[in-house]
Structure formats: structure tokens, C-alpha cells
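#structure-requests
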Amino acid sequence: MKRLPLLASVLLALPFTASADKSVAPAAPIDIAAETFKLDNGLTVIVHTDRKAPIVAVNLWYHVGSKNELPGRTGFAHLFEHLMFQGSENHEGEFFTPFEEVGATDQNGTTDFDRTNYFQNVPTTALDMALFMESDRMGHLLGAIDQKVLDEQRGVVQNEKRQGENAPYGKMFDGILTGLFPRVTLIAGRRSDRWMI
């Protein structure tokens, strides 16, 4: 197992060993006009306006991920990502349903080491609904979670973990991470944690 950190270091360094073509001009800086402000509740809002199409992209980021988890209690940020798609105290049923009814596209959520985000593209006429649904699940999730919903989503997360591990080289990324950073908290959790069993 001592070879793993060395192997990981070599694999991570490979992309940087290729010679750079110095004849290519540097890319122009990217400047996307956006308005940024903070609400009284602490939420930072970034708005970029582009009127080429009658759609709105809504993307909420929570600054919580696997880095916030404790040893023996990993995978909870990913589990909560799933639970937040299961309705709220004010909306019974899956979060996707009202969005499908208004024609939303590209709707999902992701969890990483330092954040969990939810996103959807909706017609401009559905922006109020999208913002209500996002704020509703942010503030009224707890009363919508029962044992049945928890067990179902725990099973989904466990299955995602198994699918990732069973894919070719599926355990390699986790092995490299834990070899380089022994105290890293894996996003999907460790199978040895009690709730994952």
C-alpha cells in the first residue's frame, strides 16, 4: 500500500509534464457581466442577464460537502442531496414533478468535497416557481422526511456507491485520494460506516 501515494503522485503529475506550445497566444480574459448582492438572510445572489432565449438557469450552492463530515459518519452530504429531491412540508412528492410540468431542463444536484448544488433551467415564466421550490426545500425539508423516504434514499446512495466501485477502475479515485490524503472524507461515504451497511 505504500506504493499508492507514489503512483498517485506520478499519475497526477503526468498532465503537467507535456511540453507547452509557446506559439499559441494567451487567451483573452473572460468577462461575464454579473450583479452580486447579499440578502438579509446571508444568501449571496449572482445574477447574469442574457436575453437571447426565454429561459432562466437557477443554480443554488450550499457550502457543505464531505469535508464537513466526521470519521465514521461519511456520505451524509450526498444523502441529504438526495433527500432534498423528495419534497418538503409544502410540496408532497418528488421535487422534479412541478418542474417537468413547466418544461424545465437540465435539472439535477451534485455533491463535492466543499459544496452541494442544485440546478435547473426553466422558462422565464417559471422563475417564481423555481425560486419558491428552492427556498421551500431549504427551509421546510425536515417535516417531509419520514423513515420510508430516508430508507429509500439511503438505498439509492448505497447503490450509487456500489455502481461506482464496480465500474472499471471504480475504486482507483478513492484509493488515490485516501493514499495521498489519509484523512480525506469520501463524497459517497465509506462502506464501513454504519449507516452504509
